[in-house]
Amino acid sequence: MDPVFLGQLLLNGIVIGLIYGLIATGLTLQFGILHIVNFAHGEVLMVAMYAMAALLPLFGGDFFVAFAVLVVLASAVSLLAARGLLAALATGGDGGGIFEKSLLLTLGVSIVLVNGVQQLFTSNPQMATTSFGYGAFALGEIRLTYAHALASVVAVVTFGALFWFLLRTNAGRALRAVAQNREAALMIGLDPTRVARRAVAVSLVLSAVAGAVLVPIIVFQPTVGQTLLLKAFAVVVIGGMGNIGGAVAVALGLGVLESLVGGFADIVWQNAVAFVAMIAVLAMRPQGLFAAAIRKG
């Protein structure tokens, strides 16, 4: 076995795993706080990719300026979207059936976004170019493109900021409190609706960040979010629904596993490996690999 080839596969796998982690943590955050499944989460990523592709030419291909503008726009839109989503889910008096409502509502939003973007930009594959071009770092004989390196750094910094927010800030502690026991959080004066709104906004921004770093790496089209969303669902299920640390760990493992399978086996198995792993985990441990950290009952 060629050690250089193996090292290249492992490095590529870590990068894609970090991006999977950005998508999956947003999903698991929403489930942990609201107990909903957001089928439009992948379309948020897709819209962010098209937005990033539109912003880059406006700033001369400067990724960092375009990225900063996108994060600001995504934050503002996410706050509005969170209000709209929670208001729609709260209709019907007692708020019952929120899980079923979330499935129908987010699936409808997903269909609208996919077809809307396809109408505006067609279904032709696109790829954006940035100011740092297609150069690469050389780690001996192993190469890491500037785009992949940037995606890795952004993902690691984002994870660090997310865990700092959850563990060190009052707003983050409120999120964790509501996730652990909604009734007890309400008794100590926390507003679950406000906390839920914050959780949705953070999760959507995470998805937008993932879309932004993917723009220089992959060719994309209006359906790109659906494939990535399915893999993110597999990550969340394997790690344990609602467990953010589990989602990050599984995402890294899945990225490496996909890269190794793509390098040593038929390429068709690369996309299937996530779901094969999910089925195996569900058969042996239905609650997920890291479910011990999740509240029971």
UniProtKB/TrEMBL annotation:
Similarity comment text for this entry: Belongs to the binding-protein-dependent transport system permease family. LivHM subfamily.
InterPro entries assigned to the protein according to its UniProt record, in alphabetical order? ABC_transp_permease (IPR001851), BCAA_transport_permease (IPR052157)
Membrane-protein topology = Multi-pass membrane protein
The superkingdom of the source organism is: Bacteria
Q: What is its main location?
A: membrane
User: Where, per UniProt, does this protein localize?
Assistant: Cell membrane
Question: Cellular component terms, GO, for this chain's entry?
Answer: plasma membrane
Q: What is the name listed in the Swiss-Prot or TrEMBL entry for this protein?
A: Amino acid/amide ABC transporter membrane protein 1, HAAT family
Alphabetical GO biological process terms: amino acid transport
Q: Report the CDD domains cross-referenced here.
A: TM_PBP1_LivH_like (cd06582)
Is Transmembrane a UniProt keyword of this protein? yes
Any one GO molecular-function label of the UniProt entry: transmembrane transporter activity
What parts of the sequence cross the membrane? 6-29, 36-59, 65-90, 102-121, 146-167, 199-220, 232-257, 264-284
Pfam families reported for this sequence: BPD_transp_2 (PF02653)
Q: Does the keyword Ribonucleoprotein apply?
A: no
- What are the alphabetically sorted keywords of the record? Amino-acid transport, Cell membrane, Membrane, Transmembrane, Transmembrane helix, Transport
